[in-house]
Amino acid sequence: MSKVIAASPRLGAAGVTAIRRDFRALHQLVHGKPLVYLDNAATTQKPQVVIDRVARYYALENANIHRGVHALSERATDAYERARASVQRFIHAAEPHEILFVRGTTEAINLIAQTYGRTHIGAGDEIVISTMEHHSNIVPWQMLCEQTGARLRVVPITDAGELRLDEYERILSDRTRLVSIVHVSNALGTINPVDQIVRLAHARGVPVVLDGAQAVAHMSVDVQALDCDFYAFSGHKVLGPTGIGVLYGKTSFLEAMPPYQGGGDMIRSVSFERTHYNVLPYKFEAGTPHIAGAIGLATAIEYLTAVGLDRVAAYEQELLAYGTDALSRIQGLRLSGTASHKAGILSFVIDGIHPHDIGTILDREGVAIRTGHHCCQPLMDRLGVPATTRASLALYTTREDIDALRTAVENAREVFA
Question: What structural domains does the chain harbor?
């Protein structure tokens, strides 16, 4: 880790410059222009230490885990389980066995729906989500409702993109069996008051799932302090590899849930008459897992922890304010998502220009942003737009990146004017 980063209590421009040296992808030309990467809500770039650690596993430690007695298998097993412990510390879980490795947030939510959901939710029961949810926190619950006869209840939002807590409290009822809410909206940047969400649900004895995909790379998360029952996030959004993610669950819930998939390593013994399942967390990790992904994720977490999540959060808030001011000065541009408490997401529309056209022109300028419905079609319906343009920030984003974004957007306006 750079001495510049370690020495300063504030991230600042010098610290960000040092950080950017660790990300080779940021130092390239796109269409002959320096890359300005502002699509971090879709996926973050990877520091070289993560790339090197994954390569080292495949080069020197490649073996299956939990089953071999030879040296490589023992090395790989140790690295994989140390990765679990790293995740435990990162989100402040009580025990390592409360950390399940999955493919990502989507699989984590599907796992809950098809294990806890199918055993605890029946006809006439209700599941509470919100208008701002990603499809991965809508569709699994719709599927469960189709299977069980349960009903989906949706908490509305304000025009600013804030959750209507009064409506949430009203929707909670004796029929509510589960609440599943996003911690940070991927399309609006809204940071939901998840502590209040959990507290109100628990007052009725209702468990809570939190989708933390957009939260963990941008702020400190303490699942014990939040007292949520489940928390999910994806590795590739927190500087780690793709195809690896985490589901945290309280021990009491995980122990009572049936396995999600059957196969190797999730069993203690198998006969044609009966199978006895393994202990936590292995009961939910059937087959050969993404070993390299888990190890790479742990390295990404260690990198981010060394920088300091509090410093990252403070820096990104400065950038968000700078970017909000810069974009607000563009004629005809309207920001989508103006919550008082939000993370580094700048979503907007421009009168008379489709977001896809904006994205195409920005790409020719080397500016990588995201356009579309962002897997939030019901939210787009609420906003009254087919799509938005979204710029999303990270710890390596600079003010110069924001300036380049503003210039490119203004150029796009001139083209269509």
Answer: 3-40+308-416 (3.90.1150.10), 51-305 (3.40.640.10)
